[in-house]
C-alpha cells in the first residue's frame, strides 16, 4: 500500500514540476512585446486564418496542412479591446496588411506596437482584418493584444486555466441607425396622418413627372407655409441620417474629422440634429437664392414651381435611397463599400433632375434657352460640380 501511494505522489510531483516549467516559459508569465514589457491579453496563435482557393473563403490555420502558407490573417476586435496595444513581430522580414491594404514593412525580429484606440479612431470599425505576410509557417509570426506593465505594479501571474470573459460585440452606429429609422418612421407617420393631401402630393412620382404644374396649388403658391416647412424639416432629417449612415461605412464626409469623430450614442444623436439643422437652413437658403436669381432673370413666375419640384424630387429620391442602402447594409454585412456605390446614384439623380427642371420651366415660360440654361447652371449644376470636386 505505501508503495502504491508513493507512486501516486511521485507521479503528481512530476506533473506539478512539468506544469511549473511550462508556466515559467509561458508568455503569460514572462510578458510579451519589446523586452517583455506587456501583459498578454490575447494570443492569436490559435486564431490565424488562411485563404483556401477551393472553398474561396478563409479557414482556420492547420499546421499539418498549411505549413507552407506565407500569409496568415486574423480578425482583430477593436471595440472590445480599447486601451490595449496590438503587438506584432516576425522572425524574418514581412509585411503588414490591414483590411487588404498594405500598411508597412515588418523588420525581422522587431516588435511593432500599435495602439488599438488609434486604430479604432482611424478605421471607425468595431473589427479589422489583419494579415501578416512573410516567411512560411506559424513560428515566424507572433500577434498579441497586450497591456503595458507598470513600473510600480506588483507582478501578476496569469495561468492558462483562467476563463476569458468578454462583453458582447455591439456597434454604437448600429444602435443609432436603428433608433434613427424608428424616428424617421414616426415623422413620416405623423405627416401622413395629419397632412395626408400634402404627403400624397409630395410622394407622387406621377405628379413629379407631370409638366403642367398647378401654380395656384396650396403647396406651390405658399412655399414657406407651415405645411411646407414641416416637409422641408422631414427632408432634412433624411439627409442627416444618410450622412451618418455613410460615415458608419468608414467614409469621411467631412475632411477635418472634427465632426462625427466620437461614436458615443448621445453625441451621435446631437450630431444628427445638428446636421438636420444645417440641411434645413441650406434648403430654405436655396429658396432665397432662387428668389434673387429669379428676379435677375425675370423668372418670378416659375420660382415657386422650381422650388416645389426640387423638394418633391429630393423627398422621393432620398427616401428610396435610404431604404435601399439600409436593406443592402443589413443583408450584406461583410460587403465592402466603394465611393462609386454612393456617388453614382447622386450624379444620376441630379443630372435627371436638371433635365426635368429644364423641360418644366421651358414649357411654362417663353424664355430664351441661353437665359434658362444660365439660370439652371447657377442654381443646380454649379453646386453639383463643386460638391463632386470636394467629394473626390
TrEMBL record:
InterPro entries, per the entry: DUF4271 (IPR025367)
Pfam families: DUF4271
Keyword Membrane appears in the UniProt entry: yes
TM region positions: 176-195, 229-247, 267-289, 310-330, 342-361, 370-391
Signal peptide: 1-23
Keywords: Membrane, Signal, Transmembrane, Transmembrane helix
Coiled-coil regions listed: none
Protein name per its UniProtKB record: DUF4271 domain-containing protein
Source organism: Spirosoma taeanense
Amino acid at each position: 500500500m505505501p508503495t502504491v501511494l508513493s507512486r501516486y505522489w511521485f507521479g503528481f510531483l512530476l506533473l506539478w514540476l512539468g506544469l511549473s516549467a511550462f508556466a515559467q516559459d509561458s508568455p503569460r508569465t514572462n510578458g510579451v512585446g519589446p523586452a517583455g514589457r506587456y501583459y498578454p491579453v490575447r494570443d492569436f496563435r490559435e486564431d490565424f486564418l488562411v485563404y483556401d482557393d477551393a472553398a474561396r473563403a478563409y479557414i482556420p490555420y492547420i499546421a499539418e496542412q498549411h505549413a507552407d502558407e506565407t500569409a496568415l490573417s486574423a480578425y482583430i476586435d477593436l471595440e472590445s479591446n480599447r486601451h490595449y496595444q496590438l503587438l506584432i513581430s516576425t522572425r524574418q522580414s514581412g509585411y503588414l496588411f490591414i483590411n487588404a491594404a498594405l500598411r508597412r514593412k515588418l523588420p525581422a525580429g522587431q516588435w511593432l506596437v500599435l495602439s488599438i484606440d488609434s486604430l479604432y479612431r482611424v478605421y471607425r470599425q468595431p473589427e479589422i482584418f489583419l494579415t501578416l505576410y512573410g516567411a512560411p509557417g506559424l513560428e515566424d509570426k507572433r500577434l498579441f493584444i497586450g497591456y503595458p506593465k507598470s513600473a510600480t505594479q506588483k507582478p501578476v501571474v496569469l495561468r492558462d486555466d483562467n476563463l476569458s470573459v468578454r462583453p458582447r460585440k455591439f456597434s454604437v452606429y448600429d444602435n443609432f441607425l436603428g433608433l434613427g429609422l424608428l424616428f424617421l418612421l414616426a415623422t413620416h407617420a405623423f405627416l401622413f396622418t395629419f397632412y395626408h393631401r400634402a404627403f400624397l402630393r409630395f410622394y407622387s412620382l406621377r405628379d413629379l413627372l407631370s409638366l403642367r404644374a398647378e401654380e395656384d396649388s396650396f403647396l406651390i403658391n405658399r412655399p414657406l407655409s407651415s405645411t411646407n416647412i414641416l416637409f422641408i424639416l422631414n427632408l432634412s432629417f433624411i439627409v442627416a441620417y444618410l450622412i451618418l449612415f455613410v460615415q458608419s461605412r468608414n467614409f469621411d464626409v467631412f475632411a477635418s474629422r472634427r465632426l462625427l469623430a466620437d461614436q458615443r450614442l448621445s453625441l451621435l444623436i446631437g450630431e444628427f440634429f445638428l446636421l438636420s439643422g444645417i440641411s434645413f437652413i441650406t434648403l430654405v437658403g436655396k429658396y432665397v437664392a432662387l428668389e434673387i436669381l429669379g428676379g435677375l432673370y425675370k423668372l418670378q413666375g416659375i420660382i415657386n414651381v422650381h422650388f416645389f419640384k426640387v423638394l418633391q424630387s429630393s423627398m422621393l429620391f432620398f427616401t428610396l435611397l435610404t431604404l435601399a442602402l439600409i436593406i443592402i447594409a443589413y443583408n450584406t454585412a461583410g460587403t465592402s463599400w466603394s465611393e462609386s456605390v454612393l456617388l453614382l446614384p447622386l450624379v444620376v439623380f441630379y443630372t435627371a433632375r436638371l433635365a426635368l427642371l429644364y423641360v418644366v420651366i421651358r414649357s411654362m415660360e417663353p424664355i430664351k434657352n441661353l437665359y434658362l440654361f444660365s439660370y439652371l447652371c447657377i442654381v443646380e449644376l454649379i453646386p453639383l460640380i463643386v460638391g463632386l470636386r470636394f467629394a473626390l
